[in-house]
Design brief:
It is a single chain. The protein is elongated and about 50 Å long. It contains five helices and no strands. Helix 2 packs antiparallel against helix 5 and helix 4 packs antiparallel against helix 5. 76% of the residues lie in helices and 0% in strands. The two termini are 30 Å apart. It has 132 residues and is mainly α.
Length: 132
C-alpha cells in the first residue's frame, strides 16, 4: 500500500501531482508514529525526559495534522497546506534538536526521522512555490 499512489489516483489530481508533497505526506505519517513511540519510550527512561516527551508529542500531533490536510485533494487549500508544511518543519526541527541531546537509540531514530520529514516538507514547499 502506498499513500503516494492513493493521492495520485484521486480524480482531481491529474497533472497536478507534486512528488515532493507525496513524499512529505508519507514521511509525516511515519514521523507522527515515530515521535509518538519516542515519547512513550522517553517516559520509561529513568532520567528527566519531560521536555523531550513534550516536543515529541507536539511533533507527532503536528505531523499527523499535516499529513491529513496535505493528503486531501478535493477542491484546494494551498495556503493552509503551505502553512501546515512550514509548521511541520519547525516542529520537526525543534524535536530533532531535543532528541539529539539524548544518548539512546529511540531518540536517535526519532531525530533522524524528524530531519527527513522536515527536509521533505521544505522540498514540497519549494515545488509548490515553483508552480504557483
Amino acid at each position: 500500500m502506498s499513500i503516494k499512489e492513493m493521492i495520485k489516483e484521486h480524480p482531481q489530481v491529474g497533472a497536478d501531482w507534486n512528488d515532493h508533497l507525496g513524499e512529505a505526506v508519507k514521511h509525516a505519517m511515519y514521523c507522527a508514529a515515530i515521535c509518538n513511540s519516542c515519547a512513550d519510550a522517553c517516559s520509561a527512561e529513568e532520567m528527566d525526559m519531560r521536555q523531550c516527551i513534550r516536543l515529541c508529542m507536539d511533533c507527532a500531533d503536528i505531523c499527523a495534522a499535516t499529513y491529513r490536510v496535505a493528503s486531501r485533494r478535493t477542491g484546494g487549500n494551498v495556503g493552509v497546506i503551505e502553512s501546515m508544511l512550514r509548521t511541520c518543519v519547525t516542529a520537526c526541527e525543534v524535536c530533532a534538536d531535543e532528541c539529539e541531546k539524548h544518548d539512546n537509540d529511540h531518540c536517535r531514530r526519532c531525530a533522524r526521522m524528524c530531519r527527513e520529514c522536515a527536509d521533505d516538507c521544505l522540498k514540497a514547499l519549494n515545488e509548490m512555490a515553483q508552480h504557483a
